Amino acid sequence: MDGTPQVRRGVGGFPSTPQNTNQSPGVRSPNGSTSRPNVRTTLPDLPKAPPQSSTGPLIPADILDPAQQRFYVFAVYIALWAYRTYDFYTLAVEEDESLWLCLKWCFLDVIFTFGVPLLEIPWLEWGNGTAFLLFLMHAGVDVMLMFRIGIPVQAWLMGLVGFLWDSELAISERSVKPGAILHNASLILGKQIVNILPEGSAILNPDKQSFCLNSTVTQLEIPIMINQTEPIEMEILRIDIDTNINETITVKGWDMKSMLKKARKAVKSADPDDPLTLAYTVKKPGVYLLNKVIDHSKLLVRPRSTNVVVATCPQARVKPTGSNRCRSDLSNVALEVEGTPPLNVKYRLTVNGKPRGGSQFQNLQPEDAISPLSRHTSQALVKSGREDISWARPHKILVPLNETLTTSGSWAYEIEEVQDGLGNFVSYVNVDDEERPKPKVANVRQVFNVHERPTAFLKGCSLQTPLRVPRGNAARLPVAYSSTGKGAIDSAHTIEYLFTPQDNIVADGYHSPDAVLQKQVMRKGEQPTIAAAGLYTIKSVSSDFCEGEVFEPASCLLQNPPEPALSLDSEDIIDKCAGNPIGLRVELDFVGTPPFRITYTEKKDGRVVSQPSLQVSSLRSTIDLTPQDAGHYEYTFTTIRDHVYDERPLHNIKLQQDVRPSAQAHFIESSRPKQACIDDVAEFDVGFVGEAPWKLEYEMVHNGKRTKRAIETENPHYTIRTDELSSGGEYVVALTSVTDKANCKEVLKEEARVNVRHERPKAYFGHIEGKQTVMALESRQVGLPLRFTGSGPWTLKYENLKTKEVKKESFQNPNAWLDVKTDGTYQLLSVQDSICPGLVDEKADQFDVAWVARPSLSVPETSAVLEGSKYIKEAVCEGDEDSFDVSLTGNAPFDISYRQEYKDKKGKIASVSEKDLHTVNGLASIRSETSKAGTYEYTFMKLADARYDHSKKHFSPLTIQQTVHSRPGARFDKPGKTYSYCSRESEGEEVIPITLEGVAPFYLEVEIKHQGTPKPEISVHKNIATNKYDLKIEHRKMHLGHSSISIRKVRDSRGCTLKPPPGGPRVQISVHDAPTATPLEDRQDFCVGERLSFALGGQVPFTVYYTFEKQERKASNPGTTFRRLAELPGTFTITGLRDSASECLASLDITKTIHPIPSVRLSGGQVSSVDIHEGGGTDLDFQFWGTPPFEFTYTRSTNANKNRKSKVLEIKTEVSHEMSMSIPVQDEGTYEVVSIKDRWCSFAKSGEGHDGKGGQKLLAY
């Protein structure tokens, strides 16, 4: 059957390695020989494979190859573990049944471990024994997970780590090696080597001072201290700093004696053995070493290997720059520091006299080198005089300072001090200090002024609003100056502007390519003068010191409009009746910029009549010159002006005419009919036109009767007076005709009318409900009935007798109403209608007005107390019933509108509602709103009764405020949680956190219901001062087992009480017996490096709580013995213990004191060498750490030599009750400490002692 060949399984179910049967010539044969080419050999038969025991995987390989099948099986295995982990998590959270889950996973593991081999997948065909072993392993894990059995992984890991690395857990819960603590070589440090010198010694610069020379300090004295010798000759080696060339200076003879004499004079002591300090004067910089000293006995005195570097004193200056800057520029200041690097320089900055800050630059070095002085001292750099001392040469280093100048005014940079790498210090502040070199104060301060930048723009001129200037006149370019500061700069400005003549401006309004750039310097506030028409654009603005900025608008167009001119054209106006000219019609044509104003002179018969002016707003206009009187008129146009040009004269522009108007007569007054009283006389003014004399004919018509009359006059004005008008009615005066000098009679149609009253007017008060008195609402307008006779309108004068106020009013209606708003008695004084004065009826000339009382609202004292502008009502609790009363006066029923405003606890308005109340009683009761806690304000906004509506003017809002306290609340922070307690009371017990809401102090009642007990216990807690309360249940109320706790009642300091409904949130408590801990050693004091061991009683594993040096720690212990290595000194206290049987934490107080291992330092912990003379001495300085008294052992050995080893000469033991000790010695040798012991502990160097009892290392010699 054709198909995929089957793979033969090898040992253990794995496929066997395929054999290569096609070997090439030359390949080694299975028997080890090499076949030769061209030799015919008989090939052995191929081995036959045994019969296949399997037919291949259950899923054929052509469908899914074995590698992919193994991948899917592994994926299913990982998915099962993820599902198993999820079940474990839900078991820990939801507390499901463990047995069912354990059986489920054992069943699934059986299916997987025994089912996978049935798939016959290569490499996954294990036998039944292997499958059973895998099942047992998985079942064990299932039992541990589903029954939550702890796996001591930590204990296993710690045991493995301890086995591999030989370390122990210390008190700090970290693994440490005991050997590093027990064999700490840093506890004993220091060694002092004492060398006995020859007869004397000499030291150059014993105090290691620093010296420098400059232009003010040209020489100085360097100290040389000699001890127990009197030198007669010295050789001083000087190394030149610049050339590195050595120079030997010999001091002897008179110079040596002078130095000794001066030194003895300066010493106050008379003891010849005391050291002397010689002063050697140097004038050149360099490195000085004491090379050789010969005393008076011709013996060499060994000098100390020290040196003195005399360098050039450091100096610094501010490189001078310009004295002016502009705002927003960079300061561009540089500090030039010169001296031996590394250099330090300090400067300060003041702006306008106020310190702005400063800085200090440290470790300044050249860019191409790093000075060794930054890591070593000069003593370490020069030993023999053959070293390179180029590091001591002075260098100039430039330090740039660039910061933005944001403030205008005076800026000053000043150097305060400078120091070089040798310690030479120069201060430019305290130049009077005698101990320091005096610098020449030059260029240490740089002061410059920061100026504001100018700005400019054009004001009132642009391309859209050009500047129009008369031709030939100059104008100011309207430049407005400002600056980056508060105002314009008080100095000259330089303006650069671009100019293009008007004829050369391009079509788009821009400058032509050949525009001219002009520059002008303007005084303060001055503007450039321009005259030529064209386009001007400001390109730049600058002041004496700074370039500025040009803002928009920056372009201005200057125009020269044409000069104004006038041309006239006229024609006569002819009277059609008489044929005479009566006027002149003139057409005006203008050139220029409107509006125009022209003036002309009007002469009549050679006499100037008037000089009127005429305003024309267009380029063309027409006027009529028609004088009323006859004569010869001459009009001379004298001046003209337009919008641009001032007034200019006009030449030879005149008009003349002869005017002879026709006869006319007309009434001068208006055509409205006149009104007259009976028996009055009427007058009518008449005006005449034409040539005098005039003859006027008129007639008067009344009641159908017509009376004709005629008059003659030469006056152009005439007044017609009528006879007394004795009867009432209408009179008509009609002008019929007029004749002037030319005897041309003109017919007239002018009429004037006069109406004559039949009687005089009268005024009196009417009645209201039959009376001339009225009761009205206050401030309401009351209409008093008036009665008039005559022709309106009537002007009435009246007085309020109460207020003595007199008023006048006009009325149009004969039955009018006098509107008043003030109470009192009103009396009529006089009346006049539109024509005639009238009479007042004395029987009805008075009317009385009185007000009805307004309603009012008040709050009784029993309801609320007035505090400030509000009534404060007693506070209540949320949900309590409450109300308050208000008193009402007025005319019932009453309508009240009030606003109820609710503010929450934060004072924020949460809701506003308006309510209305209708009541018929004088006392209204209003229910208070207490459903929510907060502040309620009841503001009575409106009040009305049966007579009055609400009036804001007469009623002021009244506010009643009441605080509604929220009911207190109490809740468990972790409801449903189970808290564990010990059967006995201990410190640090778990508390039940409760959050209380309200105002402290609180009163709290909790209910404890024990399992199996029907009646609960009540626990009362009073005077709880905070809102967070840790509830502690008295142990006498606790029973072993489980109990539930719920909140029964809570009350706060305001008296508000809350009783939660039954069945609310609760917590559980579980009471267990407590574990115990016992020390395995009775002693209290231990040393660092020892072990603290305790026996634990209870169910393993344990959790141990302890504090070490006030730091709380927690440790898990898998066994019944708790042991820790003391790696640090301090106080160790076990404060609690918890076992695995419960969460009960037993409070303990087991304290052990761990003392530090004492330590000692000889010569400060350093290896020091001291040279003494024969017979002289020195001190061994010991410093101790630990608890006195100290017992220590030290040795004296021979000084180390290249040819022989050091040998111990003597061992001594001393006791010190202080923290330090000094022992004088005179013997040569190497001194070092080998062991130390204090009150508690001891330590010895390796090989010097052994461990003893009591946790201390005892010494053995």
From TrEMBL:
- Residue intervals of the Nucleoporin POM152 Ig-like domain: 453-556, 760-845, 1158-1242
Domain Nucleoporin POM152 immunoglobulin-like residues, every copy: 560-660, 876-965
- Chain segments carrying region Disordered: 1-54
Composition skew (Polar residues), residue ranges: 16-41
Q: Name one Pfam family in it.
A: Ig_Pom152
Q: Name one GO molecular function term.
A: structural constituent of nuclear pore
Domain Nucleoporin POM152 ninth Ig-like residues, every copy: 1075-1152
**Any single GO BP term:** protein import into nucleus
Residue ranges of every copy of the Nucleoporin POM152 first Ig-like domain listed in the record: 201-310
Q: Name one GO cellular component term.
A: nuclear pore transmembrane ring
Q: Which InterPro entries match?
A: Ig-like_POM152, Ig-like_POM152_1st, Ig-like_POM152_9th, Ig_POM152, Pom152, TMD_POM152
Q: Residue ranges of the Nucleoporin POM152 N-terminal transmembrane domain?
A: 65-149
Cite the PANTHER family for this sequence: NUCLEOPORIN POM152
What is this protein called in UniProt? Nucleoporin Pom152
